[in-house]
Amino acid sequence: MVSTCHSERPSLIDIGVNLTNSRFDKDRAEVIAKAQAAGVAYQIVTGTNAQESQAAFELSQKYSGLFATAGCHPHDSQRMTDEDFAQIESLLTHDTVVAVGECGLDFNRNFSPPEIQQQVFRQHLKLACDIQKPLFLHERDATETMLTILSDYHNRLPAAVIHCFTANQKALESYLDFGLYIGITGWVCDERRGQELASIVHLIPDNRLMLETDAPYLIPRDLTPKPKSNRNLPQYLPHIAQQLARLRGQSFETLAALTQKNSMEFFNLKPKTS
Q1: What residues contact 271, with CB distance under 8 A and at least 6 apart?
Q2: Is residue 272 in some structural domain?
Q3: In a domain, 5, yes or no
C-alpha cells in the first residue's frame, strides 16, 4: 500500500503526466515535489516518441515515485524509424518503464497519415503482446478503427487503458465491453467541453477507473483561485479527484482508494527501495 503524503487523505496516482515537456524545464524538481506534498504518491511520465520516452525513463531513475511509459504517439507515427522503435523496445526492459505507449490513433488532426498511424499502432500492440506490459492508449475520433485493430490481438492483449478519455457514452460502453480501463482528467472540470463526460463518468465500474492530469495540458477550468498560468500541474490531481468523486456520488476517500488500487495493479507498481 502506498503511504499517504503529508495528509490523512489517501494518496493518489497520476497515470499520465508529460513531465518531459519543455514547460517544466525551469522548475521540474519543484513540480514533482509539490505534487508529492499534495498527496500524489506516484506519477507516470508519458513517453510520446523514442526521445521523450528516453527522457521519461531518465526521470524515473532520478526521482523516487516516478515511473515511465515508452512508445510513439500517433502524431509522431510518420517520423518513427526502425531505430526509434528498437530504442522503445530496449526501454521497456527496465522495471521503471511500466507500459507500452503512448500509442494509438488520432483521426481528429491526422498529423500523421491514418494508414501510418495504424501500422505503427500494430507494432506497439505486437510488442505489448510479446512482453506482456500494459498498454497506454491514445484515441481521438477513431473509436471503431481502434476497436477493430485491438480485436485482432484480443487473445494475447495485456491490460490496456484509454488515457484521457473525452468521448461519448457509446464509445465508453464499447471500451468497457472490450475490457479496457478508463483514464479521466480535468476535462470533467470544464463547464464548456466536459459536460457530456461529466454526465457519464458514473458508468465506469470502480475497478476500471484511473486518474490523470495530462499536465501541462488540460488545466481544470474551475480551480479557485484561478492560477496565473494555464499550465496544468500534477499537484492539481486531488482537485480532479474531488470533482470526479462528486460526479460519481462517492467520497474522495473511496475514489482515491479504488483508483490507487487499480493503478498499482494495472502498472504492477512497486515502491522503490532507494
Answers
A1: 2
A2: no
A3: no
pLDDT of 3 over the 90 cut: no
Measure Cα distances from 162 to 105, 139, 223 in Å.
11, 7, 25
Q: Is the pLDDT of residue 7 over 70?
A: no
Q: For strand 209-211 and strand 66-70, is the pairing parallel, antiparallel, or unpaired? A: unpaired
Confidence of residue 270 (pLDDT cuts 50, 70, 90): confident
Tell me how crowded residue 209 is: count the other CB atoms within 10 A of its CB.
20
Cα-to-chain-centroid distance, residue 90: 21
What gap in Å lies between CA 71 and CA 90, rounded to an integer? 11
Asked whether the whole model's pTM tops 0.90, one would answer yes
79 SS3 class: helix
pLDDT 10s digits, 231-244 = 999 999 999 999 99
**Domain boundaries, position 142:** 13-267
pLDDT in the model for residue 10: 72
The rounded mean pLDDT for the chain is 94
CATH code (residue 204): 3.20.20.140
Q: Which amino acid is at 137?
A: L
Q: How distant, in Å, are the alpha carbons of 3, 105, 140, 141 from that of 110?
A: 42, 9, 10, 10
* More reliable by pLDDT, 1 or 153: 153
> How many structural domains compose the chain?
1
- Residue 196 lies inside a defined structural domain of this protein: yes
Helix, strand, or coil here: 271? coil
